[in-house]
Amino acid sequence: MSADTFADTLRREDPARYLASLFAPAPVRANLWAVYAFNAEIARIPASVSEAVIGEMRLAWAREALADLYARPPRVRRHPVYEALATLRDQPGAPDEALLAGLVEARNADLGEGAFPDTAERDAYIDRTAGTLMRAGARLCAPDWQPGDGAERALTAAGRLWGYTGLLRDFARLCAAGRPPVTQDELEASGASVETLRRGLQPETAIKAREGLVDRARHAARDLSASRKALPASVFPAIGYAVLARGDLAAARRPADPYNYAPADNPLGAQLALLWASVTGRV
Fold first, then answer.
1. Gene3D superfamilies, alphabetically (predicted)?
2. 128 CB contacts (<8 Å, ≥6 apart)?
3. Taking the model in full, what pTM does it have?
4. C-beta separation of 167 from 197 below 8 A
5. pLDDT reading at 278 higher than 80
């Protein structure tokens, strides 16, 4: 798969990361695209299967393909994404097998049903998906960078801001799939149930159920504002798209109907927001 094909895939399936990656030098951008294409490949599995067991089989195939890729000598599957990862594997800052396998394992949660057990488990899911991908990208952009406490706080906050706003964007789809991105306590406190959310009923109750998502996203946004100065400019191509989550969060706080909420598609506005953030450092 050529770089242009990866670019087309990311423009369609992961436009925010794609736009931010354009701020990277060409060689770094190609490495980011390889990792992002891998993430897109595994992230689409849960939504593309009719039965969980089929999704489990496809994720198992991905884990086996990674094991082959990192074997000595490597055995590279004839698949464009894994061929790109093979080229990336030994470059400075490249993710190791454990990191990529962790991304695969995290997607098993997307094959189940029901709410999250608690907030800690939901935070952990976001850290293992959005957070891990953001850290992998930052390391590709700055292989020799050793983040201190402030930068670690910023990375965690940026990943959670993006992850939580992602759950808000996907709220209706996840509810319809029987996987509402709320906790058991949030369900009980709101009076909602997995079934009412699945059927798109009682929007007022659904708004109450998702208040925890909004609160966690707002907390992450405040944390990122307080710690972003610890991030070097070199990691912006891997972190900068978090600024776009701020606009999504503002819109999500005032939904007329949580089942019909969708952020406006505004590529030019996104490009301008990223350009301003790159100049000011205000991710």
1. Farnesyl Diphosphate Synthase
2. 102, 103, 105, 106
3. 0.95
4. no
5. yes
